[in-house]
Structures
1.
Amino acid sequence: MIGAFLSVLICCVTSLVLMVTASETHLWSARTVDDAVLTATAFGLGLGAPHWGAHLVRLSLIFFAFTSIIGWNYYGETCVHYLFKKKSIVIYRSLFLFFVALGPFLNIRHVFILADIVTGLMVMPNLVSLIGLRREVIEETEAFEMSSRRKTVEVKG
């Protein structure tokens, strides 16, 4: 849960830095500028040292990429183990390492398209499970709401 919070916090800080430095950054109108260059320039202006912006963005990207690779590997491995048992983990690890090694050689747009497709494929079993377990979800939600009401009455009483 803290990962999602930190991602939102980092995105908010980045967008605020981009908005605050927008008047000083003439890169907004240039269509050939990479997103990372724009962000590095904005952070450099915000810090008052242009070269530090590039270092900050580079270091942030390294940490984000490393932790994302570890997190997605663990998530996928756990799902593969649950669905197909232990024998298939070696196949999953091999495919995962292949795509991790292939990633730096691909265009960033292709990497994100591939990531979106794989994430979309992960949604399918979850949706099927939610539809199959809808009665249990409704029962548990109602039980939770009843216990919450009792606690609220006890606190007020």
Note: The mean pLDDT is 83.
2.
Amino acid sequence: MGISRRRLLHGIGSGAVAAATLPGIAAGRSVLLMGAPENGGPIHLDRNENPYGAPESAMAAMRESLKSPNRYPDGSVLTKKIAEHHNVSAEQVVLGCGSSEILRMAADAFLAPGRKLVLATPTCPILASYARQKGVEVVEVPLTREFAHDLVAMLPRCDHATGMVYICNPNNPTGTLTPQQDVQDFLHKLPAGIPVLIDEAYHHYVAATPSYASFLDQPGDEHTIVTRTFSKIYGLAGVRIGYAVAPKALATRLPQFALPFGENAAGIAGAMAALDDREFVSRSADRNRADKQTFFNSADVRYIRVTDTQTNFTLLRLDHPIDEVIAHFRANGIFVGPRFPQLDNYLRVSIGRPEESREFWRVWDMLPHKPVHGMSHGDPKG
């Protein structure tokens, strides 16, 4: 499952390593690479974006939408299209200003003081942040040693006071999968009436495997809310469109807490076009796998452990304090992931374009690393 780091691609020779160890740039200087931001701004390997951008079909649709900026957006056309795409009714689809707004709607709809949110740690922190702002108890259950959700340990934490369960699959920041059967077993054993929000933001990056399937591609559970976003593989992070698919009883509760006209016209038009562009999605997933393998190869020649991942980011094992590493990259024009709970020895790095990854490794090599004479492939938390 995922790309195996136990196989190095042939052809990584001294040239690749030499390119990664060129003299460093001055601290604080912005980096300008071929294909990097035109203004010479920093390289972003911190937000898990599609570094190649949106499909041209979406770009054309958004340009066309700007001919009527005086009109409020009509999200119903996109709602209907998403419903057809997933073979559900339009009443089951809820749009949001990115999936972040969907998570906020869910927090407002199902969580209140006296109720609990049960989730894994570390995982995407957005929903937990919303919950804490509302005075809701957040029950965090550590991931397994394989960085999967420990659903066996989460189950007894779910009781009559539980307002919602959150499962991010693939998980952010670890990039790992929780097997589909484990999730199904958990849902069947869960006390009745507890909504379960399954965040599938990185669904399109998952390689074919019998242990995973989207909960939008199988008969749904009456208490399951599945969220998706156009911010990742579709390359539309800047125009903020996300959505949820849920049973009608749950779906009707979410829009009560939506921002009026929260989805913008350009984003709706871009998402409409992107949803039809399946060739772009396939090409982006293939390109990500190739770029990820190249990144892993560069880690291997340096004897650095990274986690196998089913997303467009990975965790890299550190030999320096994480705050020092983050500051070092920022001073050299590269933004990387933040510190995550229980991951002080790991850095989350988005998979960028080849030239961005080369610059990442060049800056990495500027740190005074201890010589390593071998590499262990033990468990990811080893």
Note: The chain has a mean pLDDT of 88.
